[in-house]
Every structure is written in C-alpha cells, then in structure tokens.
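Office hours follow-up: a student asked to see two folded examples consecutively, so here they are.
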Amino acid sequence: MLFDDATLRKLNQLTLVAARIRAGGIQGDRRSTRRGSSVEFADYRNYSPGDDLRRLDWNIYARLERPFIKLFEEEQDLAVTILLDGSGSMSWGQGELNKFDYARRLAAGLGAAALSGGDQLSVALLRDGRVAADAGPMRGPAVLARLFRFLETLTPGGATDLNGSLRQAAIKPRRPGLAILISDLLAPQGYESGLRELLGRSYEVVLLHLLAPDELDPELAGDLQLVDIETGQGQDVSLDGGLRSLYRQRAQAWLGAVQADCRKRGIRYLHLNTRRPWDQALLLEMRQAGIVK
C-alpha cells in the first residue's frame, strides 16, 4: 500500500486538468471545454460499484431508496497515460530522496486522482529505449489496488534512451489524451524527439522534471572519480569551490532551457526536487502549476 487512508482521501478529491479533451467511449465525470458544448443535465442511470459518489442524486435516493447517478450532456472521459522513467539514473538518492521511489508515489497519486474522476488510465515503465512494462487501460476506483501492485513491482535499471521509449509509447494502440512524463531527463541523446512524437500523435503533454538535491548542488570536494550509474564508466575530476559554482550555474541554465523549450511546444512543465515531500508536490505544487485542481 503506497498511501495511508487519510492521504488517499485527499488524493481522491483531486482532478487532473486537461486543456484539450478528446471524446471518449463512455460518459465520464469531466465536462468538455469545447465552445458551444452543452453541460446541462441530461438523464439518470443506475449506480454501479466504483461510480463517483459526488454524482449521486441524494434527493432521489431519499425518496426512492435507490441510488441513481446524474448524467450531463457532452461530458467526456479523459484518457490519461503516465510515463515513468525507469532508467538507472532514477535509482539515485537514499531513503525519502530516492528519485524512483518518489516518482512511483507521484504516479500512484496521479493515477488515484484519474481513477476517482472516472478517467481511463494507463501506466508505462520506460527503460532501455522501450516500454519495459505497462498496465491498463483501467478505469474506476475499484482497480486502485491493481495500480498499486503494478507500481510496487517496478524497479529501475538499464540505460536511458528516452527518445526511443517515448516513440514506442506514442505508437501504442491507445486513445490519445493526457500524457504525463515523470523523468530526470538525464538522457545522453536527449528527449526532444520523443516528446515531439507524443505531440504529433495528439497527446497533451505534462513533464514532471524530477531531480535529487545533490544533482543540482553536489556536496563534493577534492580529487575524485565520478562513476556513471548507468554505464559504470569513471571520470577523474578535481572539485573546488569555483568548479562547483560553475556546475550550479550550468545546472540552473539547463533547467531554464528545458522549461523554455516546453513553453514553446505547449508542454506544461514542473521542476520537482525530492527534498520536498512528495505529498506536498502532489497537493500543493501541482495544484499551483494547474496540473491538478
């Protein structure tokens, strides 16, 4: 179990925000933002296990002692795809600062919000230039335990090839919708062409850029050999205050360049640091960024 009951209740109150909603196969809990579409009450249907209780008509229930769900015209469900970077670099950090454990909790929380809102959810693990594991599509709060079990089985490892993994994820036979990528973006070949592939397939993309504190400001000094966590290759370096200061400047410049590129492409971007508790990232930072509400 990734969350306690109190945290899960808070997550179930969240709704993922999408600027563009593609028509779904069934009626969902999300109202269309298309100009001129109707969001008026349309009909009732019988309650089914897993339905959002916020849609229950309690007045009808009080009179008839039978549960009915209210339906609205032009309501659409959203297809949500969570793409989790499972490369070796994501295994960095100890305890609560471990990037992959942090990313799994973010995926679980966003998945819980999608399922409680009636959205269609898929989750994919990206490793070695491919989709190494996936689950879904799934729908409804009743499958939340299945989502948690899947996430708990995942482990990071292998090399980073985000472009290859994202291309494979983009051509999967699933309905385009909201794609949420959780990654450190530490990919030697970059990530841009993979994101272009998602955008070209009509996905709306959110990028959660996750890094550990010492990746932005390493607490190192002296003569060292740095070893690549994915390839095992070493590099001898001599670190002093000036070189550390230059590293911090270039790290911040990189973050700014990624954010600017996302803004240009219409991708919603949020930089996250594992120093901040994951629940604050979900309940505060993502709400402020307009990713959830």
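And the second, which I mentioned at the end of office hours:
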Amino acid sequence: MTLRIDAHQHFWKLERGDYRWLGPELAPLYRDFGPLDLAPLRARHRIDGSVAVQAADTLAETEFLLGLAEREPSVLGVVGWVDLEAHDAPDTLARLAEHPKLVGVRPMLQDLPDERWILRESVAPALRALVELDLAFDALVKPRHLPHLVTLVERHPDLRIVVDHGAKPDIAAGRDWSGFSAWVSHLRTLGGQPLLHCKLSGLPTESRVDWTREDLRPHVAALLGAFGPERMMWGSDWPVVELGGGYDRWMNASQALVDHLNPAEQLALFGATAAGFYGLELKTLP
C-alpha cells in the first residue's frame, strides 16, 4: 500500500488552556484547529493521513490527541508529551504505549533553558523505555542543540530519533547566516547514524514572510544531502505553517524543490519513510 502522509501537524482546542506559547498576538493561530479544518487541505493534496504532534507540554495534551485519534481515522499516529525526567516516566510511557496510535513522544527541547537537558542522567531511564516500547523520539531542536543530539545518539544508538523541522535553520538570514556551515556539518554527522531521520517541515516559518523557493533551496539540498529521501519525511507543520504562507504554498514549494528526485525517492519523502519510521502500517492500518 502506497500512502501519502503528512508526518507533522497539530490540533488544539484553546479552552484546554495549556498552550502557554499560544496567545492572541498569534492571531492566525489563536482559534481551535481540528480534523474538519485539515480535511479540505488533505483532500486537495491527496494526503491519506497524518501524524498529530503535541503542542503543549502536558500529559493531558497526549490524552487529548489520543482521544481525538480514536474518533478520526485520518490520524494515523500521535506523538505525545511525557515528562521524561519524572521518576515514573517509564511506567507512564508503558501505559500510554498500550494505545495503538501512540507512535512517539516529543519533549519541547527548544524551550528548555538547559541546552543539555536531554543528556541528564535523570532522563536516561525514559529514553531506554522508549527503545523497549518501540516508540520514536521527536527532537524539537534548534541548531545550537545539534552537538548535544550527536552525543545523545552516541549514548542511545538504538533510539529512533527524528529531527523536527530540519533543526530550524535561520533561513531568514540566508547564506549570510554565520551558522550555516556548522548546521550543515552537524547534520552530516547525524546523517551518518542509520536510525536517525529528519522532517522536511517547518522551514517557511524560519524564513522571511516573503520567502521564495530559492530561499529554501540550499537548506532543502543540505537536508537531502545529509539524510537522503529514504530517511526524510514531509510534514506541513499545520496550522503553524499559516504564519509562513500556508499549507498550499509550502506543499507546492516542497514538490518543486524535490522534483529532481526519482519516483521512488519522492514516494519515500511524501509517505513511505513516515510509515516505516513510525510503524504506521503495523499499528494503525487495516
């Protein structure tokens, strides 16, 4: 079965009250977003299903998404949130993993004051539990975190890791960004690890409002060069992508930027990689 999958999108309901980053100043995002809002976009771009990713750092967020996934067949998997530093984190993960649509977890590393938080010994038992439970780890990081991610891979070589949003390079600064070379170098190091994957997502919101495909091209090329299409998966980052031009604009740009790939590579990037990495065929499809 060939699937076309959006490997990274969000749902939220404001009345839940735990989206601390989301306020009225982010007007395009400051409302509820649910499956009915996403449905016409999925239909327009022939998306069979999606992976819903946490947007709040609470256990209630994970349970909210899993409950939604039970009612919505197009949600093929959920990447939730668990306090990985809690003493009972392994038990919590084991309980949540009983749900067939839980496919991974994501701590919001980009927002934590300690850049080395994921390397704390207090987190290690939860990371080992992820491996034992066959759950993935979504790394929400920025370029400054990449050296620590390299260390994480060395310590936990069996942990399935996917880098969200290409580690959020400063595309707005263009090739003048002083960290471009270091970002590429770290990506190549990480790309040498066979279990490590990367999402082609989130780039529009790291760009200027008036970004063009050419603004994104060197960054997309660097990501493909580091991981190859077989270990990359396309994600919309909807509805956050509304801050960067919207779903349609990002999808159309993505397709144009990878049109040099052969059909098999494009199938991987737009679905097969996500299905394999998250085990979606095994866990959620008939």
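Two things to take away from it. The mean pLDDT is 95. The chain has ten helices and eight strands.
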